[in-house]
UniProtKB/TrEMBL annotation:
Species: Dyella dinghuensis
PROSITE patterns linked to this entry: HTH_ARSR_2 (PS50987)
PANTHER family referenced in this protein's UniProt entry, alphabetically: TRANSCRIPTIONAL REGULATOR-RELATED, TRANSCRIPTIONAL REGULATORY PROTEIN
CDD domains reported for this sequence: HTH_ARSR (cd00090)
Superkingdom of this protein's organism: Bacteria
GO molecular-function terms, A-Z: cadmium ion sensor activity; DNA binding; DNA-binding transcription factor activity; lead ion binding
Protein name (database record): Transcriptional regulator
Length: 232
């Protein structure tokens, strides 16, 4: 999963085979919220035994889709990087036309705002990206997306801490194609940092049962000041 060389047909087939097993797919989806989880928890998510989960996790590690964090005797699994998360999200796009409307009917909160790995996706993520590009607060160039100084002034005025807001100027983001909206939201380190700051400020809170993000009333008011509005 690097940009050093293009995939050959055998590598592409191997990636497809890793996703073809429902238990492995369930594990990857569970980690799309950017968390790190132990093997036992991922086994429960996938509905398999500990031994079976161990075999699946080894294959995903060997295939470059997962990373491992070891803390003492404990082992925690996570997606390997943001590129893997973007690839998994993009895998849903061929089916988006027939699944997006049903997904919205089943779980409108998930479509309204959610994490794509660790950055904001869904209607709110797309609205933010489009509004800030239109205002010139985001610049899209050959090296990705960057935040402009005028944006940090607006963020501080809306309630961001000054130092974290200025630190955003050093980060790069990228357009990530949203599988339900089929338009771009802001991904990469910049998208992750902005989403994290909004969570810390209480503009968003995490849902307990899935990767939906729930905008708070105060968060919606402050986002509206930044040109970000959700259609009701």
């Amino acid at each position: 999963m690097t940009e050093v060389s293009p995939l050959n047909r055998y590598q592409l087939a191997e990636l497809g085979s890793m996703l073809a097993e429902p238990a492995r797919a369930a594990m990857l989806l569970a980690l799309m919220d950017g968390t790190m989880r132990p093997a036992g928890e991922l086994a429960r998510v996938a509905g398999v035994s500990a031994a079976t989960a161990s075999a699946h996790l080894k294959r995903l590690l060997d295939g470059g889709l997962l990373g491992l964090h070891e803390q003492g005797r404990h082992r925690y699994f996570r997606l390997a990087n943001d590129d893997v998360a973007a690839w998994l999200e993009a895998m849903a796009l061929p089916h988006a036309n027939r699944t997006a409307s049903s997904a919205a009917a089943r779980d409108p909160a998930l479509c309204r705002a959610r994490t794509c790995y660790r950055h904001l996706a869904g209607q709110l993520g797309v609205a933010l990206c489009e509004a800030w590009l239109e205002r010139g607060w985001l610049h899209a160039g050959s090296d990705g997306m960057s935040l402009q100084p005028a944006a940090t002034d607006a963020l501080v005025s809306a309630g961001f801490e000054a130092t974290p807001a200025l630190q955003l100027l050093r980060l790069r983001g990228r357009g990530c194609l949203d599988w339900t909206e089929r338009r771009l939201h802001l991904g990469g380190p910049l998208g992750v940092a902005i989403t994290g700051a909004m969570l810390d400020a209480g503009w968003l809170r995490r849902a307990h049962r899935n990767r939906a993000l729930l905008p708070t009333p105060d968060g919606l008011r402050r986002l509206a000041k930044l040109g970000v509005r959700l259609d009701t």
